[in-house]
Design a protein that fits this description.
Layout: H1 3-17, H2 20-25, H3 28-31, E1 35-39, E2 41-42, H4 47-50, E3 55-56, H5 58-70, E4 74-75, H6 78-87, E5 94-101, H7 104-117, E6 122-125, H8 137-147, E7 152-155, E8 160-163, H9 167-183, H10 188-201, H11 206-212, H12 220-228, E9 232-235, H13 246-262, E10 270-272, H14 282-288, E11 293-295, E12 314-315, H15 322-330, H16 332-336
Parallel strand pairs: 1-5, 1-12, 2-3, 4-5, 5-6, 6-9, 10-11
Antiparallel strand pairs: 7-8
Helix pairs in contact: 5-7, 5-15, 8-9, 8-10
This protein binds zinc ion.
């Protein structure tokens, strides 16, 4: 751990011990701000060990929900939170909860827990893989290479001959596979066949992974069931991509919205940039398509003057300590350690 991070955590711990977090949490400064929290996957098995930035364990997820309850946070439905922020009627300790993509773990892990706590949540659902029985290709390649980390990988197409011992080795193997699939415009069926072959080569039980539904997306039937129970479904593009062409961008939104409506959800009007990737012109494109807000992956609180089309969020990670998470909820972390302001539009 770096010295700066160590110091930061020590100060956050001290502020908790001194009750400073409670003062900030209940301050008028905090009441003028909304914290949007973002998750992706809640592990079905060991995914949080594979990628602790993308996946949190069920225990970590539960600890966050417990904390929100013990800190008496007002967890608001996303749209309502934004409206009340604009109107200046935000309750104290306001938080909105969002999940990106629609991994199967939303149905199997996250949503049951959110319901248990009675918390509203928004799922930014990317829909293509939900309408197909295939694993999501890119993360599954990475996951399988990690599962096979003790092995030596030999492939003919693409040509790969390397150990999978280190993360650098695995990153190289991933890049070779990713580039080859792209260059040869592999279909979803071809990609799925490759995943089965790769698993066999690495002696990994792929049917078991599929049965557990690791790195698969929720089905339309599951989305429908969660919508009936109150889950809010919003836009994340059909194929998890943001074309730099306005017509293609608009088509991604339309295809995405169609599937969302088909499962019985209201017409979606909020958007989340896939991979947190955005350009200044996207605001106008989204507005023209009737979208009223867009969230990024840049850390920070939403303020009344924040740009609706570039809203910051807190990305939770399995490696984030509970003290740090609490520091974000109260506002101490943002107040003590200057965050990169979202307003400077540092586009990725
Ligand atoms: Zn995403």
């Amino acid at each position: 751990m770096s010295l700066l991070r160590h110091t930061k955590l020590a100060v956050l711990s001290a502020s908790r011990a001194l009750g400073l977090d409670h003062i900030v949490l209940n301050s008028s400064w905090r009441q003028q701000r909304l914290l949007i929290v973002c998750w992706h996957n809640i592990s079905i098995d060991d995914e949080h060990i594979w990628d602790p930035a993308l996946c949190v364990s069920p225990d970590t997820f539960r600890s966050r929900l417990d904390l929100l309850r013990s800190m008496h946070c007002n967890v608001l439905p996303f749209g309502q939170a934004l409206t009340r922020l604009r109107e200046g009627t935000l309750p104290p300790r306001a938080v909105a909860l969002t999940i990106d993509d629609g991994d199967s773990s939303v149905y199997l892990r996250a949503w049951p827990m959110l319901r248990e706590f009675g918390f509203a949540a928004t799922l930014y659902w990317t829909t293509y893989y939900s309408t197909h029985p295939y694993a999501v290709f890119d993360p599954m390649v990475s996951y399988l290479l990690w599962k096979g980390r003790g092995r030596f990988l030999q492939l003919r197409e693409p040509l790969v001959r390397r150990s999978l011992k280190s993360s650098t080795d695995r990153a190289h193997a991933f890049r070779a596979i990713y580039d080859f699939a792209r260059m040869n415009a592999w279909s979803a069926e071809r990609k799925e066949a490759f995943l089965a072959d790769l698993s066999q080569t690495l002696e990994i039980d792929y049917p078991e992974i599929k049965t557990k539904r690791i790195l698969h997306l929720i089905s339309p039937a599951e989305a429908h069931a969660m919508v009936a129970e109150g889950l809010d479904l919003q836009l994340h593009t059909h194929r998890h991509r943001v074309p730099r062409d306005v017509a293609l961008f608009s088509k991604e939104l339309a295809d995405n919205a169609r599937v969302i409506r088909e499962v019985g959800a209201n017409n979606p009007s909020h958007f989340c940039y896939p991979s947190g990737s955005f350009l200044p012109e996207f605001a106008g494109w989204l507005r023209n398509d009737g979208v009223v807000s867009a969230t990024t992956c840049q850390p920070g609180f939403v303020r009344r003057e924040s740009d609706d089309y570039f809203l910051p969020r807190l990305l939770d990670k399995d490696g984030m300590s509970l003290v740090e998470f609490a520091g974000w909820i109260s506002g101490v972390a943002a107040k003590m350690f200057r965050q990169q302001p979202i307003d400077d539009h540092s586009f990725r």
